[in-house]
Predict the 3D structure of the following.
Amino acid sequence: MSSSPALPPPTKIVAVHVNYRSRAAERGTTPSYPSYFLKPPSTISGDGETVERPQGCELLGFEGEIAVVIGRTARRVDDGEAWSFVSHVAAANDMGVYDLRYADRGSNVHSKGWDGCTPVGPLADAAGLDPTALRVVTRVNGTVVQEGRTDELLFPLPALVADVSHTMTLEPGDIILTGTPAGSRPIDPGDVVEVELSGPSGVLSSVRTTIATSDEPLSTIGPAPRVTPADRAAALGVTAPRPIDLTDELRRALNSVSTATLTSQLQRRGIRSTYFTGLRPLQPGHRLLGYAYTLRYVPQREDLLDRLQAGLNAQKRAVESIGPDEVLVIEAREADGAGTIGDILAMRAFQRGAAGVITDGCVRDSPSVARMGWPVYARAPHAATLGRLHLPLDTNIPIACAGVLVMPGDLVVGDDEGAMVLPAALAEEVARDAVVQEEQETFALERVTAGESIIGLYPLADSRRPDFEAWRSQRPS
């Protein structure tokens, strides 16, 4: 890690909204040109310092980034010469609170303008560095949570310098924060965040920050912390506000009933095609519950590989973008001649907190995937790579998986029998009625096992309801 002479303090910090392909996939939109916001120089803090979460806020997010530092005045420079105006690079963390974003109207003044919320590591000399061969990694409490390379950028580092210089004069010491990869999530007081910047020769810069809670109250004139559904979705890395929260009560209900009961409840509501036909758990004994994160494969066509597989393909973008409580649901045209995911990419999704995988194709490295102790549903194992049949194309769009229409954000439930889709808007009422249905069926099964006829028991007749209610009242709560 090289040291550097002191530079003039920046007159401004220019931050890019979305620049990594994985982040664009996570957000569900890919910009056609870079967009920016400004941060005041007072937001800068250094390596080893403590950053305080504003009082009353709950969604403080980290964003590991590469800071590009301007070494000489740049005004209307060309793309080809732009990198010569960069004197240093550094690891940086573009932190912000989503609780105040609703009041910013895009400016990020309240959410990303508070003192100290831009930790920047020691500066490394940019001379001789290849701006397409840098790597940024973020760790929270020692665990890798973000990773990105500059060859995955939508807008290369020199292009950002050139673009900004056509809008405003860049002065020596000015900083451009160049975007964050997928994986930004909320952190809590006591957490330690480390952002590391490296090149082919090794680590160039790193910045370590401990999170605390501020004792200072927010201004009574300005906005109070408030979390909108859209802000919570953005903080959690999902592409749209989730139509329903998986509360503890809803989780308990959905995890206590079978997929057979849930499909029965949906059929009573006129929704008949929700069960993934032909898919089986790779290893029984694991419940599955989460929001659908969809991935679509199309038939392989060799002449399109260079254009469609440039950088991160859709499959890799998916595993670098999926987050906690999300289920990777893959449309693979019910083809069984190749795998659709293997152990390395499955492990990456698992480490990112994904709830499981459903594919209407096959799974490669199936013994290794099964040992993860993670719910995975597929047609069968297959050792061939997906390139034999499939071309990953799209993420988070409506797909058809095993004959079922899956919308991004649908709830997905799985048990040892199989898996199914549950429209989120119906989840609470279906879960409530499913619990009652299973109680009635348990009552009926006990009576039939004891030798009674199914008449009046299955379905439960009004004449037997007092018996059922008495039986129910004696069951453990």
Residues 118 and 456 are 68 Å apart (CA to CA).
